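Bug #77: duplicate submission created two jobs. Keeping one. Sequence:
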Amino acid sequence: MGLSDLTAAACPDHCMNALYDQDGSRAALREKWYEDRLYGTETLPLAMSAGVQQYADKTLVFYSAGRTQSYQLGTLYQRGVELAGAMYRLGLRPGDVAAIQVPNWVEGYLVFQAAMIAGIVVLPIIHIYGASEVTYLLRESGARVLFLPDRWRDIEYLERLRDIQDVPDLDHTVVLGKEVPDGCLGWSDFCDLVTVEFPRPELDPDDVAMILFTSGTTAKPKGVLHSHNSLLAELRAGDREGGVNLSPWPAGHIAGVLSILRLYFSGTESVLMDAWDPQAGAELVEIYGVTSSSGTPYHVGSLLEAAARDGRDISSLTRYMIGAAAVPPETVERCERAGITTYRAYGSSEHPTVTSGSIDDSVTQRSQTDGTLNVGCRVRVVDDCGQDVDDGEAGEIVSQGPDQFLGYQRREHNEGAFFPGGWFRTGDIGRIDAEGFLTITDRKKDIIIRGGENIASKEVEDYLAAHPSIVESAVVGAPDEKFGERVVAYLILASEHEITLEAIQQHFETLRVAKQKTPVEIEIVDSLPRTPTGKIKKFQLREKLWPKRNYGPSSSIELTHNGDFVRNSIRARHGFRSH
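Kept job's structure:
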C-alpha cells in the first residue's frame, strides 16, 4: 500500500495521528501542543511565504566540486513557486508523493521548495542509495514522480535507473543533466512547464508533509511520517542566531531537510555542501566567515586537521553542534582548545531534537552529556515494562514532543514502538543526572551509525544470506576513527567453503547496495554466542570490538535549540518550561 492509500485508509482528512493513537493519547498530546502554542494553524507553504518576506535578501551557497553557486532566498522562493506550478501541470496534486534523490544542488533545493508549496508530500532519498533501496522506497511510498541527476561524481544514476522496476505508481521521472533516457523528462522540459497560475493547496497543519525512510531494528527501512506542525515545531525551536551556517548533511537526511528549510525561520545564512570534503570545508569557513556548523566527530575532526594543514583561518567558526554518532568527550575538548564552543545533541528521524547542549553549559556538561530538553519535549527513563527507573539509573529513553513524528507508514511498524500515553520508544539507553542533563550510554536498536547514517544490521545480514557460501551471519558496528562506526560481519560458512572480504564486497556491488552498508571487515567463526532461546548475543560481539569508554553511541541528531529539562522541577532556562 502506498502512502496516499494508507493516508486515506487511516483518516480521510490526511491526519495520520490515528496510526498509533490506540489509547487516545496522541489526540490529547496534540491538543496540549495547540494550547501551548507549539502547534498552530499555519502550514509550511504559508510559513515559507511569511518567512521570505523577512529574509528575502539572505544568501544560500551551494558548494559542489568545480562549481559554487549563490542565490538570495527571495529569488529561490519565486522560482520554487513557478516550479510548484510545473508540478501541478504535470498532474501532481496535494497528497501525492514526490521522491527527490538529488545532492545539495540548487535544483534539488528548488524541487523540495516547489513540492512543499504545492502541498505535495516530499520523500527525500539519500543520494548514494542504490537501485534496490530506491525501488523499495518508491514502492512503499507510492511516489508519483522521481527527481534524480544523470550522474554525480562516480555515480551513474542512469545505470541505476534501468534497474528500478515494478514501481506502478511512478508516472514521471525527471532527470537533471544532459543525458535523458526515453520515457523521462529532462530538467529543461520540466522547467518549460513553469507557471504561477495554479490552485493554491488547501492543507491542514496536521496533514503529512514529508515521509522519510530510516533504518532501525528491522531489515527494511521504515517510513517516518511528519506533518506540517511537527516540522514547524522543530524549525521554530531553533536559535535565531544570525551569522552563516555550514551544512555537511545530505539532502536526504533529516538534518539536511532541516538545513533546506531553516533559513525561512531564522536569519542564519547557509552554505550547503553536496559531499563532505574537509579541505573544501575549511576553505568555505574562511571565505564566507562561517560562524556555526554541525556534524559528526569525523566532520569536525577532519575540518580542524585540514585547516591546520592548509593554514586556513577558521576563527569565525565559534559554535558547533555534534552528534549522529558516538561522541568522545575528547572531541568536544579538542574543539574547545581551538576556540569552537561545541555541544552534543540527541534525536532521531522520528523525533529530530529531543535534547541539546548549550553554549552556556560547562565544558564538562557539553562533553559528557547530550544536553537538556528541547522546547515542549518530555523524557522518561524506563525499564522493559515501561516503568520509571530510579533517578540517575540507566534505562530506555522514551520521549514526547511537538516535533515528534506522526507514526510509521506501515501500521505494523507502530506496534511496540510506543508505550501508553504516546511515549515513543527510542531504543536508546541513557540516564538523567540531578541537573536534568541526559546522557545516552548505549542503545537497544540493532543499528550501525556510519557517518551519521543508520544502517540496519539485519538488512546487511539479509544481503549476506544471499551468498551461497554463507550459512549465517551476525553484523555489528565497530569503532571507526573516521566515520564513527564501521560494518563488521561474523560469518559461519557452509562446509568446505571459503570466502574473502573482496568476494563479499563484490557480492554487495552485484546486488547494487550502497557502499556504506558493505562490510569492511569479516571474521569467520564456527559458532556465535547465543541465548537459551537461540538468539545471538550481539553485545558479546560488540564487547570484543569496543574498548571501555565513558560515552555511548548516540542515535541520529538534528539541528538544535537549547531547551530545558525539568524533571521534578529541577530547573528551567531561557523562559522555556517542559510540561
